[in-house]
């Protein structure tokens, strides 16, 4: 089974991990009973934190359920958004800004020293390729 999401909210990470463990146990029991298979290796853990003092976040141990021991990730990609722990979105903005800059630089390769693109063609390319990246993340 792909594309599942379990969410637990608590100020203490150990309590949050215990909630996630219980939820994961219930989901895996139900899925084993009704025949869809749960892929343990595709499971990820991510914690949203306001403070950055914690470098060694507690892992989520799923070995009792036949799964792996999951280490929390620093970044989480979901629906082409890049989330970091503090929800600052700097990584997301940097990624798409670099993508736009490289697209604009590649547009310069379409013209050479003798023949260049006219302004209407540049505007069309900008609207077709650069704006969808900045607005929609394509």
Which key terms come to mind for this protein?
two-stranded antiparallel sheet; single chain; 2 domains; 138 residues; 3 helices; two-stranded antiparallel ribbon; mainly alpha
Describe the structure.
The structure is a single chain. This protein is mainly α. The protein has two domains: 13-84, no CATH class; 90-136, no CATH class. Helix content is 42%, strand content 9%. The chain is built from three helices and four strands. The protein has helices at 13-33, 90-108, 119-136, and strands at residues 60-61, 69-70, 75-78, 81-84. The strands form two sheets. A two-stranded antiparallel ribbon has the order 1-2. A two-stranded antiparallel sheet has the order 3-4. A hairpin with a 2-residue loop joins strand 3 and strand 4 (81-84). Helix 2 runs antiparallel to helix 3. The chain is elongated.
């Amino acid at each position: 089974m792909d594309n599942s999401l379990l969410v637990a909210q608590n100020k203490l990470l150990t309590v949050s991990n215990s909630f996630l463990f219980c939820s994961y146990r219930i989901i895996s029991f139900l899925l084993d009973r009704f025949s869809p298979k749960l892929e343990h290796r595709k499971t990820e853990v991510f914690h949203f934190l306001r403070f950055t003092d914690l470098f060694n976040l507690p892992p989520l141990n799923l070995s009792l359920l036949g799964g792996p021991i999951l280490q929390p990730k620093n970044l989480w990609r979901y629906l082409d958004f890049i989330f970091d722990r503090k929800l600052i979105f700097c990584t997301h903005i940097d990624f798409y800004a670099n993508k736009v800059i490289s697209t604009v630089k590649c547009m310069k390769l379409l013209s050479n020293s003798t023949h260049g693109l006219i302004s209407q063609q540049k505007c069309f390319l900008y609207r077709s390729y650069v704006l969808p990246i900045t607005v929609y993340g394509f």
